[in-house]
Write a structure and sequence with these properties.
The two termini are 32 Å apart. Helix content is 35%, strand content 21%. A hairpin with a 5-residue loop joins strand 6 and strand 7. With 223 residues, it is α+β, with helices and mostly antiparallel strands. The protein is globular and about 45 Å long. Strands 3, 5, 6, 7, 8 and 9 form a 6-stranded mixed β-sheet that branches. It has a single domain, classed as Spore Coat Polysaccharide Biosynthesis Protein SpsA, Chain A (Alpha-Beta Complex), CATH 3.90.550.
């Protein structure tokens, strides 16, 4: 099954994410699917707010190619979320209340393994992202996997991607964001102490289940 259907509480983590989005007033949720698409299509049957768009080349393409498939249905700015993350509700609030059109949610360094490091300029605008911290001039934050993207920035990401697709479909959305940030301000919004986790392997799952998810539940209950 897709990682989004790992269950830490009573529902799969992607379903919990959907319900948090709905609680924050999001009325349209589009899921770009690939592997295990039928799992996500069941959610579209369950929630009126959810629809799916399939990337049929998922086996040999990156996340930007999936996002590119949504170009005919994304007419406005949107929140971009990865399906294998867990997060406290304050993560969404930080972006929905932001003044800027293009914002990357970031945290202090978690040390969880397989981090995506962020370099920003003095105005907190995106400069670069990499899993190799030595590839950056400095490390200012860690990517959470939730971003706010304007329709203008998304269109620029798609144009950049189209040029890359002539060579390879294996392009991640992070690379497209960095490319767009050369001409457009992309704000890095760092929230220290944010409760969140990405789940890529067994160690991540153990940390998420034993440490992060209980803290998320505690914080969200207190809101």
């Amino acid at each position: 099954m897709p990682k989004g259907f790992l269950t830490l509480g009573h529902r799969p983590i992607v379903q919990e994410s959907i319900e948090k989005l709905i609680d924050c007033g999001i009325s349209q949720i589009i899921i770009g699917t690939g592997y295990g698409a039928a799992y996500y299509e069941q959610l579209a049957d369950q929630y009126a707010q959810v629809s799916c768009v399939r990337n049929r080349e998922f086996a040999n393409s990156g996340s930007m190619y999936t996002l590119y498939q949504l170009r005919d249905v994304l007419a406005h700015g949107f929140l971009l979320l990865e399906s294998d993350i867990i997060y406290e509700r304050a993560a969404l609030t930080a972006l929905t209340e932001a003044d800027e059109d293009n914002v990357i949610l970031a945290s202090d360094l978690t040390g969880s393994g397989d981090e995506v490091y962020i370099e920003a300029d003095r105005s907190s605008n995106l400069v670069a992202m990499s899993k190799d911290r030595l590839a950056l001039s400095r490390v200012d934050a860690e990517l959470v996997g939730i971003s706010r993207v304007s329709v203008v920035a998304y269109s620029a990401m798609c144009r950049l991607a189209e040029d890359a697709f002539d060579r390879t479909l294996d392009l991640d959305y992070e690379d497209a964001l960095v490319g767009v940030a050369r001409d457009t301000d992309v704000r890095v919004h760092r929230v220290n102490g944010l409760a969140w986790a990405e789940i890529d392997d067994a160690a991540h799952l153990r940390r998420a289940r034993e440490i992060v998810y209980p803290e998320i539940q505690r914080r969200d209950t207190l809101e």
